[in-house]
Amino acid sequence: MHRLSLAPCVLLSLAFAACNASGPDPAAKPAPVAVAAASASVQPARPRLVGPDHASCSGAETCGSRTVEPGSCAEAANVRDTSFTTTTDPVTGKTMNVAGQKLAGLPVVKVADLVARPGDFAGKTVRVEGDVSAMCTHRRGWFAVQDPGSKTGAYVRVLTAPSFLVPPDSIGKKARAEGRVEVIDVDPGAARHYADDHKLGEQNAHGAPNKSVVIRATGAEFI
Amino acid sequence: MQWRKTLFVLHRDVGFVALGLTIVYGISGIAVNHRRDWNYDRSVSVENLNLGRAADLVGNVPADRRDAITRDPTAWAPDEEQRIVRAIAAKVGRPEGPRNAFWRGPDRLSLFFGPGDDDTVDYTPSTGEAIHTTRKDRILLRQMNFLHLNEPGRWWTWVADLYALSLLFLGISGVVMVKGRAGLRGRGGILVAVGIALPILGWLVARR
Predict the structure, then answer these.
(1) Is there a contact between A114 and A181 (Cβ–Cβ < 8 Å)?
(2) How many domains does chain A have?
(3) Is residue B145 one of the residues assigned to a domain?
(4) Smallest CA–CA separation between B173 and chain A, in Å?
(5) Could you give the CA distance from residue A71 to residue A213 in angstroms, rounded to a whole number?
(6) Is residue B182 part of a domain?
(7) Residue B201: its chain A contacts at CB < 8 A?
(8) What pTM value is reported for the model?
(9) Is residue B118 part of a domain?
């Protein structure tokens, strides 16, 4: 009986010994999320990036000198505002879902211009309008918007997490969104996910990290 | 001892109460665990159709326009595109027309019928082929996932927290209320050690 009671302790000791023997692993323990509560209206909270592609990240939006993909669906786990309101669009008179901050009424930038000359817009706050061609349906952390009437399929992904979530069933709706333009690297795994599961960026999804222009939105309307 | 009897009663009653949520969280947990293999929320039905070339869908137009429509979708006039969209809608049994239609690629005209992407048609003008995709919530599983993934938020968070605490209670009380050879000092102790070692070993193996 006495020998049996030692068994749990022995097993636990072995496990902890193995843990200590392998030494500390900085990648295994991401830093806690730093939430910028003081200036919440402008500065989105720093997301806790999870998943295999972000294993070496420490919770920031950069891995060393490389900017990582901040629009991953996992980022939506830390969304501060999961609500949206339904109202009537004063322009079209149709039902409209509003999420995030109220739009400021910035001048509209065409998606085609953003895609063609991302460097001209990087870091600037812009407004885009168009059709929602795709969205993250599981986490609702982003949607893709393309110019109305465009036949090229050119799109920009609008990252809503961690500020807010895309309302359900927004695919196929018209959208207006405002936010900061960023040029990011999309790693091959994420690009493959967008291509295979969302039919986005088929032409360059498989290969080395792709530069991609995204908008980190503060607010959006879906009509 | 009296405290063991009290613990047994509590363990039994909490177990009864926790059964419903255990079923919900257990089934949904398995479903979500395999998220890489399937859509755990929705069932998807895909139908491949041949709707014919755009020139055949557009209706009465001059011969030179028919050629242009066939050659280059970007040359479609807005009214021609509307007629083609209406024809596609009629062919897939949606004569009321889509709520929106736009190009998701140079050779991919998408029509949206239901809410979200519940009922869509992707038409390829170059071949005349189309993919009609319909999506439905999985019966019961969608509702279980809704609760398991805490989509309601707010008050449901408290329910989920209480359930998690009840699981902790069930686990700990189950361990300490059994005495003798089957208890913590005997076979139970070994099983507890195995149960604790499993996640530790899993973490050690998975992080490599």
Answers:
(1) yes
(2) 1
(3) yes
(4) 18
(5) 11
(6) no
(7) 15
(8) 0.69
(9) yes
- Longest CA–CA separation in chain B, Å: 97
A59-71 pLDDT, tens digit each: 223 333 444 444 4
CA distances from A12 to B169, B176, B200 (A): 22, 18, 9
Strand ranges (DSSP E) for A82-209?
Answer: 84-88, 95-100, 125-135, 142-146, 156-159, 174-186
Q: Is A203 an 8 Å CB contact of chain B?
A: no
Flag whether A14 is in a domain: no
Q: Compare CB distances from B186 to A4, A16, A22 and report the shortest one's residue.
A: A4
Specify the CATH number for the domain of residue A196: 2.40.50.140
Query: Left (φ > 0), alpha (ψ -120 to 50) or beta: where does A199 sit?
Result: left
CB-nearest partner of A4 from B102, B116, B185? B185
ipTM of this model? 0.70
**Dihedral of the alpha carbons of A163, A190, A194, A71, in degrees to the nearest 10:** 10
Q: Is a pLDDT exceeding 50 seen at residue A3?
A: no
Q: Which domain holds residue B105?
A: 42-137
Strand A62-63 to A210-222 pairing: unpaired
- Could you list the residue range(s) of the whole structural domain that residue A192 is in? 80-222
**Averaged over A67-87, what is the pLDDT?**
63
Chosen from B103, B138, B207 to mutate, greatest number of chain A CBs within 10 A: B103
Within a 10 A sphere around the Cβ of A140, how many other Cβ atoms? 23
The answer to whether A97 and A164 have CB atoms below 8 angstroms apart is no
Distance CA B175, CA B188 (A): 7
In a shared domain, residues B16 and B50: no
